[in-house]
Amino acid sequence: MAMTEQNASRDSGSRACADPWPRGAEVRRINLALQGGGAHGAFTWGVLDRLLEDDRIEIEGITGTSAGAVNGTVMAYGLTVGGRPEARRVLRRLWERIAKVAALSPLQPSALDRLMGPGRMDFSPGYWVMDMMSRVLSPYQYNVFDLNPLRSILAEMVDFEALRGCEAVKLFVSATNVKRGRIKVFELSEMELDAVVASTCLPFLHQAVEIGEEAYWDGGYMGNPAIYPLIYNTDSRDILLVQLNPINTDSVPTSAQEIMDRLNVLTFNASLMREMRAINFVTRLIDDGFDHGGRLKRLLLHVIHAEDVMAELGVSSKLNADRAFLEHLFEIGRARTDAWLAAHFDRVGQESTVDIEEMYL
After folding, report:
1. pLDDT for the residue 359
2. Using CA atoms in the order 158, 4, 200, 104, what is the torsion angle rounded to 10 degrees?
3. β-pairing, 57-65 with 28-34?
4. Are strands 209-211 and 182-187 parallel, antiparallel or unpaired?
5. Half-sphere exposure (CA, 13 Å, Cβ side) for 104?
6. Do residues 62 and 32 touch, judged by C-beta distance below 8 A?
7. 165 contacts 99 by C-beta, under 8 angstroms
8. Calpha distance 67→73 (Å, rounded)
9. Which of 62, 281, 344, 358 has its CA at 20 to 30 Å from residue 152's CA atom?
């Protein structure tokens, strides 16, 4: 080929910015809130692929953290340079690239892992070596040059200048400010490669990402995802949360691995639970007539998840980018979105389709 993939991508960014969304009385405008969860983000890929396929859906804003930030950024770029078909294409290319790079990694499921079902790497020698090493060494010691394949993939695929220049969708990416202990939300006007990489920066794998005078870790510690940017910066009241981390579990973890897995899930759900409590509080104020002269915004919340599937997967599976596993999660994401659209599309714009108190409080 005369052009590399990177150059082809950059060329597409020079095209005029067009409105990628359908029009008509049946079209419903929504916002997306995309959780992080490593390789589990392939489930979100499936959700986005199905939503982009539906001519009745317009997406006004996206807030994403970690894998959610990567999915959201690549989707927004695809929308910018080629509309919904291109967004679907670049999302698939993203996950295919991730799988291709992962195939060369020592982090591979063992034969026993594969026999026990898709996803887990509990018996992977590479996973256990990495896990033990991360307990005694930091990435400043064992990853001196801070090698990060995801950075290279995003640099090749996304022209951030083109992305910033077209508001096909309002994009918000969250990271955790290491020194100040608070969330940082990058808006579209300040979107750059480092911002997205910062949102994915797990401190036991990578050195903190420095932007200006600040250093950032994975956004999931402070906002997974941050919902408030959608409240203040978009017109749509409907927020569809794509949830990766399961809230509930059927049993008390007893093994060391099960306990660590559950602690990981609780940590990365903590900020979401706090925001859901705040949203529920405001909703009750509005219902009781204390809406401050109509200044409070009633949100209509919706959730697509696969809690039954994710609850059976350990934390090790978040690092498993095996192609078959990613495609498995992708298909589940599409199927769950199909089911959600069939059951709830007519309620979008009218009412919430999830009971916050039952699910989150």
Report:
1. 93
2. 160
3. parallel
4. unpaired
5. 5
6. yes
7. no
8. 10
9. 62
Distance CA 126, CA 112 (A): 14
* Element holding 59 (H helix, E strand): strand 57-65
Q: Choose among 239, 86, 222: nearest CA to 163.
A: 86
Average pLDDT over residues 132-151: 93
pLDDT in tens, 72-87: 999 999 999 999 999 9
Which residues does 153 contact at the CB level (< 8 Å), separation at least 6? 94, 97, 98, 101
pLDDT at 256: 85
**Cα 275 from chain centroid (whole Å):** 17
Beta bridge partners of 57: 28
- The Cα angle at residue 350 between residues 296 and 277, in degrees rounded to 5: 45
Query: Is 167:233 a contact under the CB 8 Å cutoff?
Result: no
Establish whether the linkage from the previous residue to 253 is cis, with ω within 30° of 0: no
CA torsion angle 147 118 76 215 (round to 10): -40
- Partners of residue 102 on adjacent β-strands: none
Distance CA 96, CA 81 (A): 20
Provide the β-strand partners of residue 182. Answer: 177
| Residue that wins the pLDDT comparison between 151 and 115 | 151
| Whether residue 53 has pLDDT greater than 90 | yes
Adjacent-strand bridge partners of 186: 173
* Gap between the Cα atoms of 246 and 306, Å rounded: 8
Decide: residue 61, CB within 10 A, 0-12 exposed, 13-18 middle, 19+ buried: buried
Identity of the residue numbered 11: D
Two structure tokens written together for 301: 């919340």
Alpha helices (H) along the chain? 5-12, 41-53, 67-102, 111-115, 125-136, 139-142, 149-157, 160-164, 193-199, 228-233, 256-287, 307-310, 323-344, 356-360
